[in-house]
């Protein structure tokens, strides 16, 4: 992997240069032009010390990290659409994380039928074979299946719970960096996420609504999202994992399907109205998967396709609340890689 740096060497300011080495020791910098503002190249040798040679500046045994600072940056896409990303000058490799959209919960409007929730959209970078996070399935009578990792490394979204005649089931949480999102509750609390994933929403203490699944953050792996706790109000959603958004619980009453999933990628809740006598049978949507890739080779000035998947709608008609939308985040700079190495800081991040 080639990394690019800028640095001030002694009294001479250098421009960007390539450093095809790894680590911070046993490195020799060569062919610096004395008195010039440019550096031609850097090579790795077997030297036991670090030296700056041929530039009128020599220092042995210095930590490279105290001399060189990487050219770093990032781009976040979190509005569902198809984009074109242009690789910046001096960037020859990137790390990318994708989160698929969560699945929408089903909604019951009569004692005999439920309208299925819409599926979440896939999110990917460059091509579907580079890194791809699939969206969660929409809920039916029971909860929808969580999205899977289509390419790259990561975790699947949590499935929605199983509904009963006395309880609507919770939505699944978004996938984690090294584990799955939490399972939505089935007449009980939701499960916690794993590997930094979102927690599943709880089943309702009443039969009318289950909690939405928690989302997942895109700034590196963090704590697991807690499972939602059954409650007779609207705060039984799953907790967000790795700093993601919490799920939301639906409210009893005439407003249907108002329990959205947490960002990014949480599944939304199932819901029914108080007019349904026996109630229940409303599955939450499955959470979206999270997938990442590190050290993907890029060409400065070249363009790459970015797709951000949307969260599925309850009732799948774009009128009721959504599950959590997906996201794609691209980072570059020396040593930056997912799940948690130097990816928490925005580095002058641009957001779409």
Defining key terms:
352 residues, mainly beta, 2 domains, six-stranded mixed beta sheet, five-stranded antiparallel beta sheet, 21 strands, disordered N terminus
User: Which regions are unreliable across 5 or more consecutive residues at pLDDT < 50?
Assistant: 1-70
* Largest sheet strand order: 16-18-10-20-8-21
**Discrete helix count:** 0
- Give the tally of β-strands: 21
Distance between the termini: 28 Å
- What does the average pLDDT come to? 76
Number of domain modules: 2
Give the helix proportion (percent range).
under 10%
Shape: elongated
Q: Which structural class do you get from the secondary structure elements?
A: mainly beta
Whole-number radius of gyration?
24 Å
Characterization of the model:
This protein has 352 residues and is mostly beta strands. The chain has 2 domains: 1-70, no CATH class; 72-352, no CATH class. Helices cover 0% and strands 21% of the residues. The chain is built from no helices and 21 strands. It has strands at 3-6, 8-9, 12-13, 17-19, 28-29, 51-52, 69-70, 73-77, 81-86, 93-99, 107-108, 114-115, 123-125, 131-133, 149-151, 153-155, 271-272, 290-297, 303-308, 327-332, 350-351. A 6-stranded mixed sheet has the order 16-18-10-20-8-21, with no helix packed on it. A 5-stranded antiparallel sheet has the order 9-19-13-14-15, with no helix packed on it. Strand 2 (8-9) and strand 3 form a beta hairpin. The two termini are 28 Å apart. Residues 1-70 have low confidence and may be disordered.
